[in-house]
Amino acid sequence: MSVFRRFRSSLSYPIIATLVLVTVVPLVAVGLLLAARNREHLTTIEKQYLTRQAVSLASEVSLFYTVHSTRLSSTVRALEAAGSFSPQDLESLLATLAQHDPAILRLEILDQSGKGAFVRTRNLRPSAEQRLTALFAQDRKAAFAGKVTQRLHVPLPGLTAGVATFAYPLTSSGGTKPRAVLCGAVDLNGLQERLHDNALAGLNIAIIDHKGRVVLASRPGLAGRSMAGSPLVHDFLIKPLRLTRVYRTRAGDGAQQMLGSIAPVGQPRWGVIVERPTAKAFAFVRAMQIRTLIVTGIAAGGALALGYFLSGFMIRPLQRLAGVTSELAGGNLTVRANVAGYNELAHLATNFNNMAGNIESLVRRLKQALRQNQELFLETIRTLAAAIDAKDPYTRGHAERVSSFSMAIARHLGLSQEQVFRIRIAAILHDVGKLGIRDDILKKPGRLTAEEFAVMRQHPVIGAQIMAPIRMLRDIIPGIRNHHEMWDGSGYPDHLTGETIPLVARIIGVADTFDAMTTDRPYQRALRLEVVLDRMRAMAGIRFDPKVIEALAAAVAAGDITPPPRTTPPLIDPRDPESNQEAS
């Protein structure tokens, strides 16, 4: 059988040749995607590593600082408790402290006249002694004014690392004015050595003070310089939190991309920054990308040469089949393939038609099942809300109203249907924690005591704990836990502020308060709608998100939110958390 007839009788050879051709572009994409994912994975690993290094070093710095600060402050308290003491006793005490702490450079206890005792553990250069004496004089002046001073300084002449100075006022028993001051200077060379040990892995490490100035660094000559221009340090100085990111920084005459992490020491307000150039961190990925492009280029040349001669045998039927699959992918499940013949492609078309029919039937059944499941889910949620109402009859229908108000506010904020649905569920269940509140508190007819009110305020936390095991409802837990948070941080249970409060919780909190103010309760009568809106606008930026309040007003104006009819119950019963929140 000739080669031509073999191609006509079977699509095996054209399919093989075409697959070679069509896999060229995917091969390039897969290679580059693999390299990109390796880079992402490596970035994650590097960030985790740098974060651990920064946190570990920050803990060491904090421990180093705390040990010396505690040791000196404890000495002061012991001297204050002892009352009187001789210069010989003071000198012996200081010598004992210096003997047990090799990092101490100098200790002294002096009164206002400059008399007292001092200990030097090593001889410094005259310029360093003069500088240290001047620093002690500044600290001593502040200490006699009643202030405890703890400062960090760049290296003194002759020292390889920075110096930390401490000054503590020493008062008499029952006195108010300091009679003497304990000053101490500690060499930070031990911390400097730890930085050098970690820098052996190719890291740049520095300890900065609260102004961004470098006090200790693994690179020579960096101490004393300011790193405030680094994006990472700049953000840290604004808000001293643990940060890890990729950023660009100036290096010599050009910019260099860095991967770095910074961690706060805590007390004092220092930071430890650990960074590495991305060129070194991702050298392996760059080499992999180059090799991928070379191999792909060779494969592309061979595949294009072979595919040029063989693609014509199958391009037309494949185009028809591809058009049908595109329509199917676009949502037209009624489309069918029409490929005549008895070869493999015709059999494929027949199987495709059967598959499309099965998919159409399956999708129809899935849509029906989805509607049924969603209705069952909503009914289950409503049943749980009804159980909450049954436990606390003072707010019957409250959950459904808050859910309706929250959905209207969410729509006026421009949220998606999926977000509106999640807010709907969260609002229905926002008071589910009341199921965990004792009936003697929840149904108490009179005013709650402080202890009982504290128990009542636990219902958001209890509700979050109840919903936590349900994976499908984890996205709504912030709405349950934080709907009593206030914009100014005075809410509960987490005292969140501003936009740190989840949006779903901010929306439910506004809807919750709106319902509490527009419905008749046993402890209050409903207010007029205009009064409610004026009061809630007045609380925008204090208790509520101003944007959410604007959305509430827009929903009311559009008729999407309508308060329920009023009744006239008794006037006293401040046990309800929502009304207590409003009343307070």
According to CATH, the fold-level topology of the largest domain is Beta-Lactamase
Low-pLDDT residue intervals, each spanning 5 or more residues: 569-584
Query: What coarse outline follows from CA principal-axis ratios?
Result: flat
Q: How many individual domains? A: 2
The average pLDDT is 79
Strand tally is 10
Q: Strands of the largest sheet, in order across it?
A: 2-1-5-4-3
> Residue share in helices?
40-55%
Structural class by sheet pairing and helices? alpha+beta
Per DSSP, the total helix count is 21
Summarize the main sheet.
5 strands, antiparallel
CATH class value of the largest domain: Alpha Beta
Tell me the distance between the termini.
95 Å
The CATH homologous superfamily of the largest domain is termed: PAS domain
CATH architecture type of the largest domain: 2-Layer Sandwich
Q: Using the CA coordinates, give the radius of gyration.
A: 36 Å
The fraction of residues in strands falls at 5-15%
How does this structure look, described?
By secondary structure, this protein is of the alpha+beta class. It has 2 domains: 10-311, 2-Layer Sandwich (Beta-Lactamase), CATH 3.30.450.20; 369-583, Orthogonal Bundle (Hypothetical protein af1432). Helices cover 55% and strands 12% of the residues. It is built from 21 helices and 10 strands. The chain has helices at residues 3-9, 12-22, 24-82, 87-100, 126-144, 189-199, 231-238, 278-281, 283-310, 315-329, 344-391, 398-412, 417-428, 439-442, 450-456, 459-467, 477-481, 503-518, 529-538, 546-557, 577-583; strands at residues 104-111, 116-120, 149-153, 163-171, 178-187, 204-208, 214-217, 243-251, 254-264, 271-277. The strands form 2 sheets. Strands 2-1-5-4-3 form a 5-stranded antiparallel sheet, with helices on both faces. Strand 9 (254-264) and strand 10 (271-277) form a beta hairpin. Helix 12 packs antiparallel against helix 13 (417-428) and helix 12 (398-412) packs across helix 20. The radius of gyration is 36 Å and the shape is flat. Residues 569-584 have low confidence and may be disordered.
